[in-house]
Amino acid sequence: MAQVFVYGTLKRGQPNHQVMLDCTNGSSAFQGRGRTVEPYPLVIAGQHNIPHLLNLPGRGHCVAGEIYAVDDQMLQFLDEFEGCPDMYQRTPVRIEVLEWEGRASAPEEMPAAGRIVWCFVYSTASYSPEWLHLPYHDSYDSQGKHGLPYNPRENR
Ligand code: PCA
């Protein structure tokens, strides 16, 4: 099992969330909500309005998202789905727990709000320099006020 922090289209209510629920991809269990300990630039970029957390800790905002426990099959599926390692790189990042719903074998293993957990994040290390001048978001919603809705793959 691995812990993955999702901040973009994989979150609940966002356009790609259903892939996390599809058992043929493996298993995933929602653990809770969290926020990156360090600030990162979260931009919506390219002609398809794709969210990217740029791997530049120290700039931007602490970014909110969701923590999932996933099995190896789902992790491999997500790597492929996210175009890892070309488009995104799966990077370990420290996440502050905001609310925890996941199970633990003993109560003392249960991360409480404020605890820090390590999670994999699909972040982007290679991008065009203009992306650094895009607005930095602190949480992603495809239908947000930015007016840049995600263009699903089937429409491209
Ligand atoms: N999917 C991944 C990375 C960006 C995206 O849209 C996620 O939701 O975390």
From TrEMBL:
GO terms for cellular component: cytosol. It catalyses: epsilon-(gamma-L-glutamyl)-L-lysine = 5-oxo-L-proline + L-lysine. GO terms for biological process: modified amino acid catabolic process. Residues 4-124 form the Gamma-glutamylcyclotransferase AIG2-like domain. The active site is at E82. GO terms for molecular function: gamma-glutamylaminecyclotransferase activity. Keywords: Lyase. Its EC number is 4.3.2.8. It is an enzyme of class 4 (lyase). InterPro entries: AIG2-like_dom, GGACT, GGCT-like, GGCT-like_sf. Catalyzes the formation of 5-oxo-L-proline from L-gamma-glutamyl-L-epsilon-lysine. Contributes to degradation of proteins cross-linked by transglutaminases by degrading the cross-link between a lysine and a glutamic acid residue. Catalyzes the formation of 5-oxo-L-proline from L-gamma-glutamyl-L-epsilon-lysine. Inactive with L-gamma-glutamyl-alpha-amino acid substrates such as L-gamma-glutamyl-L-alpha-cysteine and L-gamma-glutamyl-L-alpha-alanine. Belongs to the gamma-glutamylcyclotransferase family. This is Gamma-glutamylaminecyclotransferase. The gene is GGACT.
